[in-house]
Amino acid sequence: LDSVMEDTTELILEIANFNAMGIRRTAQRFDIRTEASSRYEKSLDPESINDAVSVAVKMFKEYFPDSKITGYVDSYPVKLPNSVVEVPLSFLSRRLGKELTAAEVTKRLDNLGFITDVKGDILIVEAPSWRSTGDISLPDDILEEVARLMGYENFDFIPPTIVLDKPINQRNIDMERAVREYLAFRCGMQEIFTYIWTEDEYLEAACVDTSEMLSLSTPPSPDESKLRSTLIPGIMKGVFTNLRYFENFRIFELTQVFADRNYHSINDPTEKLPEMARHLGGAFVGSDPRLLFREAKGVLEYMHRAVHMEQLSFAQVTKPLWADDKLWLNVLFDGEVIGVIGLISIKSARKAGIKRSMTVIFEIDVEKLVPLASRNNRYLHISEYPCVDFDLSVVFDEKVTWDEICQTASKVELVKDIRFIDEYRGPQVGQGKKSVTFRTRIGSDECTLASERIEMITKQMMNKMSKKLGGDVRGA
Length: 476
Fold this sequence. Notes:
This protein is 31% helix and 24% strand. The chain is built from 14 helices and 16 strands. The strands form 4 sheets. Strands 4-7-8-12-11-10-9 form a 7-stranded mixed β-sheet, sandwiched between helices. A hairpin with a 7-residue loop joins strand 9 and strand 10. Helix 13 (402-410) packs across helix 14.
C-alpha cells in the first residue's frame, strides 16, 4: 500500500461489500468504469467478509508478529437472507425426461452447499450465501444445477409426442392479421415492436396507476421493472424515438398487455401465468391536431369494412388522464367502452419528451372485437335509379359533434349517406359557433326522385337538425 510507510505505526483496514445496484447506477451515471465497480456490481457474497478478515489476521501474524489488533467493528445492518426455492420432484423428472429420486437430487445439491428438505414430492432447497445474490431464485435454477451435475450425456433424447389435428379456421387470428394489413397497406402506418416492460417516465406521462401493475423480479434496469398493462406508454416512447428522424408519421402496435388477475396456464397446471390480453395501439404525429384526430378516428371508424368485423362507435364517456380536455373520445362496441382515442395533453407530452409536434394516440382491446363469419354476407341489389348528391353548410354550436350531426341526418327517410367535407370557425359565423359542410346522398330503390321530393327531404333533414341540434343553414 502506498499509504503505509516505514515509520507507520498504526493503520485502519476496511473490508467492505457494497450495494451492487448503487455501484452499477453510479458508474453508469458518471461514466466511470473501474476494476472495483466491475467487481462490486456483480453482487458479491457479503458473508465472504469473514473469510477476508481471517486472511488479513493471518497475514498480520505472519509478517508483523508483534502487531496488535486494538479495535474491531462489524457493521452488517441488513443481513442477506439465503434464497429458498420449492421444487416439485415431478417438475425435475418431467423437464429432464428421466425419473429422479429425492436421494439422487439431494446428494448432488448437498455437494454444492445447498440444504435440502424433502416433504413428499416437494424439495425445499436453501441456497448457500454465495449463490443467494441473485443466482438462485427459480425452480429452473435448481433444474440447471441437477442436470449439470448428473451430466447431460446421461439423459436420453426423447422427442415430444405431437398430435396433428385437422386445421381449423381461427377467426381471431385471421382478424388480427387483417387488422395489421389494413393499418399498414391501406392506412400507410408503420408497425413497431416494443418491450413488455415500461420505463417509469412514460408511465408517469401516461398517468398509469402502477400499484396494480406486475413487477419483474429481475428487471433489465431499475426504472424498467413494470410489465405493461396498457400500450399508451410504449406508444409514447415510440413517438419520442421517431421524432428524432421524422416530423410526420403514423405508427401502430398489436401485442399483449398483462394484468395481475386470472392466473392460469393451458399447458402446465403447476405454472400460473397472469391474464394476457391483446391490445391495439397507434399514434398519428403531425402539426394539425384536429386533422390528426379526424384521421385517427376515420381509421378506426372504417376498420370494420376491411377487417370484416362488427362496427365500432364513439362517444365521450370516461376521459383518459393523459388526453387533452377537448379532443378525445371513447371507443365503444355494443355499448361497452373498449378503448380510447385522444390528443396527448401538453403536460403529458412534456413528460414524455414529445416536443414541436402534436400527437393523437388510440388504444383498443382487440379481445372485445367480434369477427364476422364470411358465410353471413348479405348482398344488396344495386339501385337501378340514380341518387342525388348535394352539399349543405350548417351553423351549429361549438359543442355539437359530427357524430350527432350524422346520426340526426341519417334518420331522415331516403338518406343513404352523409360525408364530412369541411369545418369553418370565424367572425362570419359568430363566437362559439362553427359552420359544418357535409355532403348528403339521397335516393330511392323504387323510383327516380323528382325535384319536389328532393326539396321536401332536404327540408325534413334541416328541420330535424334545427330542432334537435340548433342548426341553421348558412346564408339562408
